[in-house]
Specification:
disordered N terminus, mainly beta
Length: about 220
């Protein structure tokens, strides 16, 4: 299971009750990972030459369900819960040869009263347990990751997006970074492009993604 899937699902990855007052009091950035919204996204990975999709359904002001699927057979499904201090995602993910059980979170530093200026900073962390198909002859693995997700609004339409961190597991270690820009076309539709790089124990990988999201 790739850490990039863990981040995107957890780019991703998280929702609850006390934070609802803050969510209502101020309009969030369109690319804020703590958003609770009903929306559908389509993305294209230029490096892997494949399409993917993701659906999120807000079941209340502080809860959501989500799922994703890509042409290579990778998928995720779970839910998010918004708290006083951030968002928590609990979800399953997998592909043809593995199934993962994950929990991840984004915590906006602003929820602790930290002044980060024009930047929006979200420490992120998570844990996962992965089971592999018997044909691989691999033991189940445990792991965790930590890092920082950052947004820097440039104007009302354009936002700089970046993140970085690392993962350590029983059979996997990696460092990962990503950067790109998001553009809001209107209240319902936005675009984002992102370049992601991951250096792992089995080699390195670079992905270029284009994502389009429609919010209902």
């Amino acid at each position: 299971m790739k850490i990039t899937n863990t981040i995107s699902s957890g780019i991703i990855i998280l929702a609850v009750l006390g934070f609802a007052n803050l969510a209502k009091a101020e309009e969030k950035n369109a690319f804020d990972p703590t958003n609770i919204e009903t929306k559908i996204s389509a993305n294209y990975d230029f490096s892997q030459e494949q399409f993917g999709t993701r659906i999120e359904v807000a079941t209340s002001a502080t809860n959501k369900l989500f799922g994703s699927y890509a042409e290579d057979g990778s998928w995720s499904a779970g839910g998010g819960y918004l708290t006083d201090y951030g968002i928590i995602d609990v979800y399953m993910s997998g592909d043809d040869v593995s199934t993962g059980y994950n929990i991840g979170t984004y915590v906006p530093l602003s929820s602790f009263g930290v002044d980060t200026g024009k930047w929006m900073l979200f420490p992120m962390a998570g844990l996962n347990y992965t089971q592999y198909d018997d044909s691989l002859d691999m033991e189940d693995s445990y792991g965790g990751y930590g890092g920082l997700f950052a947004l820097r609004p440039i104007n009302d339409k354009l936002t700089f997006i970046s993140y970085g961190g690392g993962m350590y597991g029983t059979n996997h270690e990696s460092l990962f970074v990503g950067a790109g820009v998001g553009y809001v076309l209107n209240d319902s539709f936005n675009l984002a492009t992102l370049v992601k790089y991951e250096d792992t124990t089995t080699g390195d990988e670079t992905n270029v993604l284009l994502n389009a999201t429609y919010k209902f």
